[in-house]
Every structure is written in structure tokens, then in C-alpha cells.
Design goal:
Blueprint lengths: L4 E8 L5 E7 L4 E3 L2 E3 L9 E6 L5 E7 L4 E7 L5 E7 L3 E4 L2 E4 L5 E7 L17 E3 L6 E5 L7 E7 L4 E7 L4 E5 L6 E9 L2 E10 L2
Antiparallel strand pairs: 1-2, 2-5, 3-4, 5-6, 7-8, 8-11, 9-10, 12-13, 13-16, 14-15, 14-17, 17-18
């Protein structure tokens, strides 16, 4: 941005993706071509940016008047959470409206990397999904249209790779997990430009 831009918080997830949260003064701010334009009637807009391990921007989001003490944290399950303070009378996070009870109030929200949406829930229709979850001996991954090939990698809760499969445009793929023990597992799809999507599933028999 052209004015003061402040980065308050940084968090990395187990796949190597990095989240950055902060605030910027009323103008616009751009991250690798993603331009965030706040409502001109509010001050202290919050930004949230997700980078892949190679430093490429995967998405950038903003929350009007939500930048006070903006912070972000990721957990072992691939989720990310945004928090901060807002100073507007009516503060909207996705479809949830928070009413201010004082000059400054706090919020906590689960973040989904989706450009054009502020801070809604992590999963949404049309994205990668895994089912059934919990899984038994098989798990199915549903994929959106991919213009290039991708690789599916599954790791255990210690980060060890236990499955890998090359994908070539399939919209749905079933994987046998009969040889894996019950527990929590993580998956990621990587394409030519880095990580496309991440998630987790449980094996429970």
C-alpha cells in the first residue's frame, strides 16, 4: 500500500504454507496481484495473506475495521484462525454480524483461503474434499477441475509420508488405506505451482 502497512503476526502450518496478518491505512494494498480495497468509511482494515512454501501468494483477504492487534495461528490439523479487535458499530465476518459493545471489541474466526471472501469457515463446496471421514479401508477424494496434473500426498500425525499418488485430471479418486492404522492423517495436493489444497481425515474402524 501507499501508506503505513503493519504486519502483526505470522504462522506456518505443517505443509510449509505461511499466514501473515496485519493492518493497513485506508487506501489499497496489493499482494502479488491480489488487490484489497476496504470500505472507505472504516479505519484499521485487517489483511490476511497465505503463501505457499515457495513464497507464492495463494490468497489474500481483508476485514474492514478489524485490524487492531490482528493475529493468525495455525494448528496441527491444517486449520488457521484469525483474531483481532474491531472498532466499527457493526462488524461482519462472512455472514456473521458482530455488534460492538464498546469502542473496541475482539473477534475470533476460522479462516478459509478463498479470494473475495473475508474470513468464513475453512471448507466450502467446490473445493477439495475427502469422504467418508472418518474412513474405514477406503477414502475418496473429490477434486475440482485441474488444468494440470497434481500429486496427492498423505502423511501421518508425525509428518511421515505414507501414501503418494499421481493425478492426471481426475475429478474423483479412491485410495485404499487398509494398510494404515487408525488415527489422524493429513493430505495435500501439489501442482506445478506448489500446494493447491490441504486437509485432514481420520481412519477409524
Amino acid at each position: 500500500g501507499a501508506n503505513n502497512d503493519l504486519g502483526y503476526s505470522l504462522s506456518a502450518d505443517r505443509t510449509g504454507c505461511v499466514y501473515v496478518a496485519g493492518e493497513f491505512e485506508l487506501d489499497t494494498i496489493t499482494f502479488d496481484g491480489y488487490e484489497l480495497i476496504p470500505d472507505s468509511s472504516y479505519t484499521d482494515p485487517m489483511f490476511m495473506v497465505k503463501y505457499d512454501p515457495a513464497g507464492n501468494v495463494l490468497c489474500a483477504s481483508l476485514l474492514d475495521c478489524g485490524g487492531g492487534g490482528a493475529s493468525v495461528s495455525s494448528d496441527l490439523f491444517g486449520n488457521a484462525y484469525a483474531s483481532g479487535a474491531f472498532n466499527c458499530h457493526s462488524f461482519t465476518v462472512d455472514t456473521t454480524v458482530l455488534a460492538a459493545n464498546s469502542v473496541w471489541d475482539i473477534f475470533l474466526a476460522k479462516y478459509r483461503c478463498e479470494n473475495g471472501v473475508a474470513v468464513p469457515d475453512l471448507s466450502s463446496p467446490g473445493e477439495f474434499s475427502a469422504f467418508p471421514n472418518p474412513a474405514g479401508d477406503f477414502i475418496t477424494f473429490r477434486l475440482p477441475d485441474l488444468s494440470t496434473s497434481a500429486t496427492l500426498i498423505i502423511t501421518d500425525n508425525l509428518g511421515r509420508e505414507v501414501k503418494r499418488q499421481q493425478l492426471n485430471g481426475e475429478k474423483q479418486v479412491q485410495i485404499s488405506v487398509a494398510d494404515l492404522a487408525d488415527g489422524i492423517y493429513f493430505y495435500r495436493f501439489t501442482g506445478e505451482n506448489g500446494i493447491v489444497s490441504t486437509g485432514k481425515f481420520i481412519i477409524q474402524r
